[in-house]
């Protein structure tokens, strides 16, 4: 009897020792709990009430059109700034669009509504962006007069941006976070191109762009699937920026699935599912859907890590459609089709990822893998980031056929030898802050000297 008891106790002890404990940041948990369905609904109802938000619509009517919508978003950001102790500043960043023979037929003032939450570490130049597009369209993209509700496309993404700004503006982060509702998406991603080009020209250190577009409804037409437990995140594989310049190293290292956007997508899945219950982040390994485009693409083309959040099951009878009933089918992007619990969860995924990234220290630098000799061991080395308070680092590894990181090894050193062959696994390194917040991962470059 004593022998049996000993075996049972030993089994329980081993199970306890091997149990994986997920560490959560209490501050981030609190912020996630504050994401509010009623707030999200109030934002979307207000956006719909502007009648149309077409980029070409009136900018002088105080109650209707894209101009009134922009001013209202700005007023929301400014109201949040009052509780930010001076860290949040808001403005409308404008540029003049000339007729282009496509979707701009007259000189138009384009405006992106921006709220910048300045980081507390003045030496930390990192920037993280969350975006949605404020403009919308009817069946005819040039129709700037008649009503277009745009509740989901992209009232949902804009509402997520506003709600994240409301909650996060009350907290401090080492890095800077930008909340932006862009215009001109339906006219050709014009607001996003303007912002991405400006960021590149001015040398912004953008490390992640979370673009939200059509992420508040839970059902599809044709297949009639109804499900509010999955959200898609689209990410590019091979980099759009300087692909030919990087191609040789990508082929040599087998990094076809390890670009910056793809690493960001993996990070989003891990952190999102850590903090938000009853939601699965489904990674889609392409930059966007077929025949479609999104505001993350201009950032991808400039070499920034950018991804797109989109609902799992799209309903095309509610996108780019005049509101009507035709053949007993209801068309139109009206507010009644929004699932606010689903939108709450998707907004919370954005929030916890932004918070974890902005609280974490910067990524390690000069991460190298030694290849100058044959060995069944793997030698990694790196340097500490120039700013931030670190607890240590995680070394990540996975088999070459696995989509996700399988193992994490903690260390406080900047050099580590692993008893695994570099020929058989992929490796990466990420910084860990004193509160346990993880940076994005860095895959090692070759050190053959």
Can you describe what's shown?
The chain is an alpha/beta fold and 449 residues long. It folds into 2 domains: 334 residues, 3-Layer(aba) Sandwich (Aminopeptidase); 83 residues, Immunoglobulins (Immunoglobulin-like). It has 10 helices and 17 strands. It has an 8-stranded mixed sheet with strand order 1-2-4-3-5-8-6-7, with helices on both faces. It has a 4-stranded mixed sheet with strand order 15-12-11-17, with no helix packed on it. It has a 3-stranded antiparallel sheet with strand order 14-13-16, with no helix packed on it. Helix 5 crosses helix 10.
Q: What is the CATH-assigned architecture of the largest domain?
A: 3-Layer(aba) Sandwich
DSSP strand tally: 17
Radius of gyration: 23 Å
Structure annotation, total helices: 10
User: Uncertain runs with pLDDT below 50, 5 residues or more?
Assistant: 1-19
Give the strand order, joined by hyphens, for the main sheet. Answer: 1-2-4-3-5-8-6-7
The description of the largest β-sheet is: 8 strands, mixed
The end-to-end distance, rounded to whole angstroms, is 62 Å
The CATH superfamily of the largest domain bears the name Zn peptidases
Strand content range: 15-25%
Shape: globular
Overall pLDDT metric: 93
Structural class: alpha/beta
Give the proportion of residues in helices: 25-40%
């Amino acid at each position: 009897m004593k022998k049996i008891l000993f075996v049972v106790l030993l089994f329980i002890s081993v199970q306890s020792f091997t149990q994986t404990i997920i560490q959560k940041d209490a501050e981030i948990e609190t912020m996630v709990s504050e994401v509010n369905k009623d707030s999200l609904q109030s934002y979307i109802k207000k956006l719909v009430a502007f009648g149309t938000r077409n980029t070409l619509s009136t900018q002088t009517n105080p109650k209707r059109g894209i101009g009134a919508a922009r001013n209202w978003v700005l007023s929301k950001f400014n109201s949040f700034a009052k509780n930010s102790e001076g860290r949040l500043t808001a403005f409308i960043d404008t540029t003049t669009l000339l007729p282009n023979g496509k979707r701009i037929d007259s000189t138009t003032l384009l405006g992106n509504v921006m709220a910048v939450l300045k980081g507390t570490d003045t030496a930390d130049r990192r920037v993280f962006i969350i975006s949605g597009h404020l403009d919308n369209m009817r069946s005819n993209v040039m129709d700037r007069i008649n009503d277009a509700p745009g509740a989901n496309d992209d009232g949902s993404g804009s509402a997520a941006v506003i709600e994240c700004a409301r909650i996060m503006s009350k907290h401090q982060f080492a890095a800077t976070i930008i909340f932006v509702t862009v215009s001109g998406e339906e006219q050709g991603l014009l607001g996003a191109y303007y912002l991405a080009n400006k960021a590149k020209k001015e040398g912004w250190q953008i490390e992640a762009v979370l673009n939200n577009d059509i992420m508040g409804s839970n059902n599809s037409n044709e297949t009639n699937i109804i499900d509010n437990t999955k959200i898609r995140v689209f990410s590019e594989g091979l980099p759009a920026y300087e692909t030919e310049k990087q191609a040789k190293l990508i082929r040599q290292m087998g990094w076809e699935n390890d670009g910056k956007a793809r690493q960001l997508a993996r990070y989003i899945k891990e952190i999102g599912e850590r903090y938000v219950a009853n939601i699965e982040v489904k990674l889609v390994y392409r930059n966007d859907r077929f025949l479609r485009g999104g505001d993350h693409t201009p950032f991808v083309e400039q070499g920034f890590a950018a991804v797109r959040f989109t609902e799992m099951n799209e309903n095309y009878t509610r996108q780019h459609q005049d509101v009507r009933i035709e053949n007993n089918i209801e068309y139109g992007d009206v507010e009644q089709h929004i699932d606010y619990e689903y939108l709450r969860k998707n907004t919370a995924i954005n929030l916890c990822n932004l918070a974890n990234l902005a609280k974490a220290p910067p990524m390690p630098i000069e991460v190298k893998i030694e290849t100058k000799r044959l060995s069944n061991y793997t030698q990694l080395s790196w340097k500490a980031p120039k700013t931030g308070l670190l607890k240590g680092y995680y070394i990540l590894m996975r088999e070459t056929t696995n989509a996700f990181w399988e193992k994490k090894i903690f260390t406080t050193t900047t050099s580590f030898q692993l008893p695994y062959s570099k020929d058989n696994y992929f490796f990466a390194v990420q910084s860990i802050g004193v509160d346990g917040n993880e940076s994005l991962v860095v895959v090692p470059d070759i050190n053959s000297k």
